[in-house]
Write a structure and sequence with these properties.
Blueprint (H helix, E strand, L loop, with lengths): L1 H20 L14 H28 L4 H30 L3 H26 L5 H21 L6 H21 L2 H6 L5
Helix pairs in contact: 1-2, 1-6, 2-3, 3-4, 5-6
């Protein structure tokens, strides 16, 4: 259910951004943007793709019986995929349709690196082995989701950030409860 809420929030964000491409809505666009329509279209398509991936994950999570660890692993994979897709679309939007082409390139490259790290973490979660690396991954996940929750309760500057905060707060609370679960800790070798 939580993943469906996030998918709806992301879809609503995509609709608002895509509507802004055609001068509907009141989304604040950075001053450096040179082509509002194309910037919003690319950003909105990236957000819509992320929403569809979250919806697909929500459907699979609810229709296929999974252990909590499998839910955590699939969510981490979804984060990696959404980070990659949304980051590339956002980077392209900034690169092609703003005065900050270097920033757009940096966004795309950073996104690819971060997505690769997230995919590696998902692989370690699902490899079926216990050991020090899995304990480190467990700690990284716990810290990351707690920081995500803390960031999500900070004041939002605009609509985009507010929607992002809602989605991340819901996810963070849900994932911290799963990662703290005794069965997940045992499967990852954190507790006996």
């Amino acid at each position: 259910m939580i993943f469906w809420i996030v998918a709806v929030v992301l879809a609503a964000n995509a609709v608002m951004v895509l509507a802004a491409a055609f001068d509907f809505g009141s989304i604040t666009i950075p001053d450096t943007v040179t082509d509002r329509r194309m910037f919003c279209l690319l950003t909105g398509i990236g957000s819509a793709a992320a929403a569809m991936i979250y919806a697909w994950n929500a459907h699979r999570t609810m229709s296929v019986r999974k252990s909590r660890l499998e839910v955590v692993r699939s969510y981490v994979m979804v984060i990696g995929l959404c980070t990659l897709i949304y980051g590339i679309f956002s980077g392209l939007a900034v690169f092609l349709y703003s005065d900050e082409s270097v920033t757009g390139l940096a966004i795309a490259l950073t996104t690819i690196i971060l997505a690769a790290i997230v995919f590696a973490i998902a692989f370690v979660i699902g490899d079926g082995k216990k050991g020090p690396l899995k304990k480190v991954v467990w700690a990284i996940l716990m810290i990351a989701f707690v920081l995500m929750a803390l960031d999500a309760v900070m004041p939002a500057q605009d609509y985009w950030e507010f929607a992002d905060h809602i989605a991340h707060l819901i996810i963070a609370v849900f994932m911290v409860s799963f990662i703290a679960d005794a069965d997940v800790r045992r499967e990852m070798g954190v507790s006996e």
